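Bumping with the actual sequence this time:
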Amino acid sequence: MQVLDQAVAAIQTRAGKGRVDGAQVAARLKAIAACGEEAARLWQGYLDKPGAPGDKYAMVTWVGAERAKQLHELSLKAHELVKEVCAAAGDQARFLVLDESPIVLAYQMLKDGETGMDVAKAALARQQAVIARVRALADKVAAIKATGVAKPAGKKPAGKKPAAKKAAPKAAKKPASKKKAPAKKPAAKKSAKKPATKKAGKKRR
């Protein structure tokens, strides 16, 4: 789908400014691909058991109303996911046009000489191509996520260095407290000398 190609290109541009959640966008794209895989199984189911031929005009008469309804419901779900991917493009989202569904529907007319089996085979091939393209876009967006995660990981070692510096000043305070104890001894010696001078005075009288 062209709109998804354009959306991912815009998202990659925004990613350089750190404004994209790559994991979230990649999840949306993978969900679109999952819808496509379910649609492919519906088309393959028809090819495995085609049933009675339909008319020469409408494909829905070949695949059946129930299968056509299931494809339509998958298309609605995928359409909402596409809008979410486009919204991740930011300001560029207003320039994106939802041109087609990522799900191949059964609401189409047969061409002259064409059968329902011919249309179903072409629809399955087209659906598989869309799935491959959407998954490739999801890988691109996942690469944006990997680049963003590498930056915080490099900051963690820098945060541990200040903790080691704080431990060093604490060890330096202990020797300072030990030096105060010897300082009291000279004060005791001075007080012992004073009585000696008084006794000397008494002897002279």
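The tokens above came from a reply further down the thread. Residues 2-150 form one domain.
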